[in-house]
Amino acid sequence: MTVVPELQDIHIQPQSERTLRLLSYNIQVGIGGSRLRDYVTKSWKHILPHAQTYENLDQIAHLASAYDVVALQEVDAGSLRSSFINQTEYLAHKALFPYWKHQLNRNLGHIAKHSNGLLSRFKPEEITHLKLPGVIPGRQAMVVRYGSVENPLILVIMHLALGQRARQRQISSVCDIIGHYEHVILMGDLNCQPDSREMNYLLKQTQLCEPTHDLKTFPSWRPKKRIDHILVTPSLKVNDVHVLDYPYSDHLPIAMNIQIPENVDIF
Question: Which CATH architecture has domain 17-259?
Answer without folding.
Answer: 4-Layer Sandwich (3.60)
